[in-house]
Amino acid sequence: MSRAKGNKAEELTCKHLQSLDFFVLERNYYSRFGEIDIIATFEGVLHFIEVKSGEDYELAIQNITPAKLSKIIKTANIYMKKTSYEGDFSFDAAIVTPQGVEMVENITL
After folding, report:
1. What is the spatial distance between Cα 22 and Cα 65, in angstroms, rounded to a whole number?
2. Total domain count for the chain?
3. Phi-psi region of 33 (alpha: psi -120 to 50; beta: other; left: phi over 0)
4. Considering only CA atoms, which of 56, 61, 60 is closest in space to residue 98?
5. 96 pLDDT more than 80
């Protein structure tokens, strides 16, 4: 995915999240292990959100590989240590297609 396309997908996702009363804390949070596209809170839960876009749902979600999820988890752990966060959290995906944004909560492989 090109950076411009990725930025557009992340912007659409942020607007979608805000319409659902999520509060976006960070975008493009980096650590030495990788990047988390969006970090947001909703009802006391911290959400680490990977944004993937594609022409259809299946093509987009297949890009969340075990290696990518591992990097997200390591980066999330660094974020939680740096911010002294000790509450509930979730690893989620935002799938952006021409039809809209679909959230997938608690992704695992």
Report:
1. 26
2. 1
3. alpha
4. 56
5. yes
> Is 93 contained in some domain?
yes
Place of tokens 């093509």: 59
DSSP label of 76? H
For the CA atoms of 105, 53, 5, 91, what is the dihedral angle to 10 degrees? 20
CATH number at residue 23: 3.40.1350.10
What's the rounded Cα separation, in Å, for the pair 80 and 87? 9
- Per-residue pLDDT reduced to its tens digit, 40-95: 999 999 999 999 998 988 988 888 999 999 999 999 999 999 999 999 999 999 99
**Contact of 33 with 76, CB cutoff 8 Å:** no
- Cα 80 from chain centre: 15
State the sign of the Cα–Cα–Cα–Cα dihedral 99, 12, 57, 48: negative
Return the pLDDT at 109: 64
Rounded CA gap, 84 and 77, in Å?
A: 10
